[in-house]
Amino acid sequence: MPDRTARRSPLPRSAAVAASGALVLALSGCLGTMPVDPDGTLESVTDGTLRIGLSAEPDIAELGSGPGDPPDGPLIELANDYADSIDARISWTPAGEETLVGLLEDGAIDIAIGGFSAETPWSERVGTTRGYSDLPDLKGRTVVWLVPAGENALLSDIELFLDGKAGS
Hints:
Order of helices and strands: HHEHEHEEEH
Number of strands: 5
Oligomer: single chain
Radius of gyration: 24 Å
Structural class: alpha/beta
Shape: globular
CATH topology: D-Maltodextrin-Binding Protein, domain 2
CATH superfamily: Periplasmic binding protein-like II
Strand content: 5-15%
Mean pLDDT: 84
Low-confidence stretches: 21-28
Largest sheet: 3 strands, parallel
Number of helices: 5
């Protein structure tokens, strides 16, 4: 009668290592890189044109004083610095908040900045950065930047940039 207590011999160590490696490679291929932009926004604006919507807000993001004058203020400087960090030039679109949210939803702009706070009612329709209260020259005002919903690579890149600027 056969000995039922005998164990099967385990896979040779090299086969187990190869199987583990194949599993890791398969899973990494399925998961891809996180975070991602379904519409590829970060990739398309890097070394290209970053379309920024501007909702004017006194003392932090103001329209140019005359026709053709660029906007001015601490948020504008941050936006310019962010664009520089991804080698992008900026195309500005000044408008009211509701219009800017619609433009984000339609893919007509990539970011919206202005007097948006962490309590923005628009967060149900678009993505928002964390609230930042310690950005340079904002005098403690908490602001968020808006991005198209789901464009998480762009959102993460902006937050990493703003994290580096916070408290300076």
